[in-house]
Amino acid sequence: MIEIERKFLVKSNDFISKSYKKSKITQGYLNSNSNRTVRVRIKGNHGYITVKGKSNLAGTSRFEWEKEIDINEVEQLIHLCEDFVIDKTRYLVDFKGHTFEVDIFHGNNEGLILAEIELTNENETFDQPDWLGQEVTGDIRYYNSYIAKNPFKNW
Amino acid sequence: MIEIERKFLVKSNDFISKSYKKSKITQGYLNSNSNRTVRVRIKGNHGYITVKGKSNLAGTSRFEWEKEIDINEVEQLIHLCEDFVIDKTRYLVDFKGHTFEVDIFHGNNEGLILAEIELTNENETFDQPDWLGQEVTGDIRYYNSYIAKNPFKNW
Q1: Of all residues in chain B, what percent carry a pLDDT higher than 90?
Q2: Distance between CA atoms of B21 and B145, rounded to whole angstroms?
Q3: CATH of residue B22
Q4: Neighbour count for residue B42 (Cβ, 10 Å)
Q5: Does B53 touch chain A (CB under 8 A)?
Q6: Any catalytic annotation for residue B48?
Q7: Where in this chain does the record put each CYTH domain (chains A, B) (predicted)?
Q8: Which among A67, A86, A132, B154 has the fewest CB atoms less than 10 Å away?
Q9: Nearest-neighbour CA in chain A from B36: distance (Å)
Q10: How many structural domains are present in chain B?
Q11: CA nearest to A9, candidates A150, A154, A141
Q12: Which domain, by its residues, includes A39?
């Protein structure tokens, strides 16, 4: 399927009190080339392998394929990953009919917070909460696959 | 799991008359780096995604993880692959208690034939049929991930 989303920096932690769900995410990349990333992820008690294609020019839309797999298998696959493993906490925050996924990064990405909103088409409009900062959609530095190679603390 | 196998060139087509099964295989690589290959494969009517780790020094043993996935999903993933797609026909040939997988390559790898035998441990012995040629276990040129980048017709 094609995934359409936009990405933002986050100005304050105010979103936390408005969140309705929180999950721990650990993920690594079997390929971090932006033409075809292959990600393995543990999210809560579930495991996934995900392949993403190249973004369109605006960076809003991208082929994505995902399969749930056994969490123990993900742990084995994470050992094979390139570069660094990413640890983050994801908060789901509803705001005026849309859900933002807000990721607080940990470890060597401490200090980085990113929000994403998934849309059904590229022209769909949405309201922006006060805690939302600058848009970084399509900025390759904010791809998790880039962060895995270049941790935020080294920026 | 750990896969233990040895690989050989093939001297003649005599194995075909002794084979008991034949499948068409089409496969591509989402990552062809030998530290962690990610392969998508259509074999007959089935689809698979397979991750392999780095070989041991002798080239006989390697971590392998495989998951069956929908064949239509494999077709989408093959479009994302690096380099060339590999087409081959696989024959299964029993010989004195072991099974050889013999691959006849097509397209831009026409002329290449490779046989593999899977073993339960690295010291397991086995009889070699007359059609089996030189051993190439651990020779990176005969990895399918290498062949996808460097088709046999260019060797």
Answers
A1: 91
A2: 24
A3: 2.40.320.10
A4: 21
A5: yes
A6: no
A7: 1-149
A8: B154
A9: 6
A10: 1
A11: A141
A12: 2-154
